[in-house]
Amino acid sequence: MRIRTYSLIVAAAALCSCSVEEGTVADVIPAPASVELSEGCYSHKPWSDIVYREDSSLGPEAYRLEVGQEGVVIASSDAAGRFYARQTLAMAAGVSEQKLDRRFWKVGFCKVEDSPRFPYRGMMLDVSRHFFGKDFIFKHLDAMAAVKLNRLHLHLTDSEGWRFPSESYPELNRTGAYRDKEPVFGGWTHCEPGTEGAYGGSFTRKDIKEIVEYADARHITVIPEIEMPGHSAEVLAAYPDLRCDSETRSGDLCPGKEETFSLIFSVLDEVMELFPSEYIHIGGDEVTHKSWATCSDCARRIAEEGLESPKDLQGYLVRRVEEYVRSKGRKVIGWDEILGDGLSSDAAVMSWRGVDPGLEAVAQGRRVIMAPGTFCYFDTAQDFPEKERPTFGNYLPINQVYSFDPAAGASDPSLVMGVQANLWTELVDSGDYAEYLLWPRGFALAEVAWSQPSVKDRDDFRRRATALAREMKDRGYGMFDLESELGERLEATEPQDHLAKGAKVYFAEGVKWTDSYAAGGEGALTDGLCGGWAYKDGKWQGFLCDVCFMIDLEEPKPVSSISLLSMQNRVHGIYLPESLKISLSYDGTSFEPVGVLRPQADTEALGAKFFDFSISGGEPTPVRYIVIDARRGPKGGFLFFDEVIVR
Q1: Which residues of 302-334 are buried (b: 16+ CB within 10 A; e: fewer)?
Q2: Residue 231 is a catalytic residue
Q3: Which of the residues 219, 286, 436, 437 has the least number of beta carbons within 10 Å of its own beta carbon?
Q4: Rounded CA gap, 323 and 333, in Å?
Q5: Is the bond preceding 183 in cis, omega lying within 30 degrees of 0?
Q6: How confident is the model at residue 11 (pLDDT cuts 50, 70, 90)?
Q7: How far apart are the first and last CA of the chain?
Q8: For residue range 551-577, what is the model confidence (pLDDT) as tens digits?
């Protein structure tokens, strides 16, 4: 029987003799599996004993917490369960777990029985594009532990910078670790440390050991990632001999050279020495393969291994690396591109290109960690993008994170290890801004990862998240303000009824949307569905060409206004039209231009921009045909439109 219901909690909290300031477990994030509240309040004095009991019937990380007249009793079968019980108690009391024994606090009488839904509850921090030192990571680990997240995935290497302290290949920590600009989208080169304006750095071995120890004390496993074979421009800057002997340049390591594997294996030996984690992340995403096709070393490797094409070299490299990692008693995780690389059943897949690769991995009998961009990429705006700082991603509100069910659709939910949020840092230039992007969305991720769907309640979660965000801000964390959230575009929240809804759309010859952004296909611009603030929401239609189309209303209708929203997001090559012309016709023979609209937009600006191309006013005019002709500017790129609204 599920004891926890929000109506019960509200009623019981009202009976409790404690004031709001004195705390209740009804305010805890993530929501426990079962909560009983009763009248009365326990007052704790510094150094008063909390009683701990071992209960082998409780599962891993599970706990039972009882607060009554006689004090506090915590039961668990392991140290992690005891730790999470203390986190629940500390959050209810309004103190940090480290100060739980040393402070006066009061908590209402309760009985809590709790256990996690998923064993893997993670966050990825990209320290390559922006180097976060150990002090920031300590602070971040404290925040993770407070909401029962237990995996910190450190993206230690990427083209922008090498952060792992390699002794066997020291140039990685010099040339590979520095570039001539701070975090910015493109336009940098690697340089020597000490160069004027040089930006970067790397951890020391002592730093890594301290981070691992600090995390371990909070029951968090640190999972290192060494990116390969793509995203490796920093390695090639430090050791150019590992490039392909090809005229085509790329950031991919050469899988044809044995020296490439010598570096990989030596570095992995050092990684496994410093990180005791069961899993080692080996990347494997977004490999270009460009230089492999014309490289003599790659051609020789293809012939020796009986491979069919240069692309097959990726599978060869990943399989060989996995075999090496397994020989050391460890397992590999890779981004979902490794699915087709023929890895052993020990390998885990991190699904980032949507949920489908994860579901496919489960269907193959593989373990998966769900981290799809639609729900888990925190390098995105949390609110109306024009209001926020420029982000690499587009728009991901906290409600959308909270709505995610990582195991939905999985043929074997037991193979879903859990869920992870990812913070890429191309445009993140400080720890405070990183925290602003991470929290309070991280609270939503924590509840998705820990709490059973049956106890989740979005409205009550927002109440709890708002309160916890205030508390963490007081503790010095950068924090998005939920109370000032504008939210999703209003028109996108429900279908729009207008004169052109359901009307046929005829595109000019050669005009076709891209398959990646088809929205509703031929009827997308008149289906009544307006796009939101995210261009990937399935309602925006994207074109890589000038766009000209005609809408047939089937019969003349009185028209007084026409509007069409477009957007700009330079980071993703999306620009507003340079001009948009609207023409109207009663009979389909004679067309009258009624407006040429030219937005004033800074095409160099990184932030998102929305522009409503609209005409209105005057008496309604009988119109059957509407022609819209949008022209791209000199930068080309995508044009995006959502719905032509005719009234």
Answers
A1: beeeebeebebbbbbbbbebbebbeeeebbbbb
A2: yes
A3: 286
A4: 13
A5: no
A6: very low
A7: 53
A8: 999 999 999 999 999 999 988 999 999
Tell me the per-residue pLDDT of 90-106, one tens digit each, with 9 for 90 and over: 999 999 999 999 999 99
What residues contact 409, with CB distance under 8 A and at least 6 apart? 355, 359
Give the global pTM. Answer: 0.93
| 557 within 8 A of 623, measured Cβ to Cβ | yes
Q: Which of 286, 305, 356, 612 is catalytic?
A: 286
Catalytic residue among 27, 142, 158, 447: 158
- CA-nearest of 129, 92, 345 to 233 is 129
Length of the chain: 647
Which strand (E) or helix (H) includes residue 297? Answer: helix 296-305
Mean pLDDT, rounded, of the chain: 94
In the predicted model, is pLDDT for residue 10 greater than 60? no
What pLDDT sits at residue 548?
A: 98
The Cα 55–Cα 140 span in angstroms is 31
DSSP state of 1: -
At 449, is the pLDDT very low, low, confident or very high (cuts 50, 70, 90)? very high
Give the pLDDT confidence of 48-68 residue by residue, as tens digits. Answer: 899 999 999 999 999 999 999
Catalytic, 308? Answer no
Is residue 155 annotated as a catalytic residue, yes or no?
A: no
Q: How confident is the model at residue 267 (pLDDT cuts 50, 70, 90)?
A: very high
Domains parsed from the chain with CATH numbers: 6-114 (3.30.379.10), 120-237+254-286+313-484 (3.20.20.80), 490-646 (2.60.120.260)
Q: pLDDT at position 21, please?
A: 59
Q: Cα 619 to chain center, whole Å?
A: 49
Q: Out of 44, 140, 155, 231, which one is annotated catalytic?
A: 231
* Angle of the 431-438 helix axis to the 134-146 helix axis, nearest 10: 20
What are residue 331's phi and psi, to 5 degrees? Answer: -125, 160
- Cβ-in-10-Å burial (0-12, 13-18, 19+) of 585 comes to middle
Based on the number of CB atoms within 10 Å of its own CB, is 35 exposed (0-12), middle (13-18) or buried (19 or more)?
A: buried
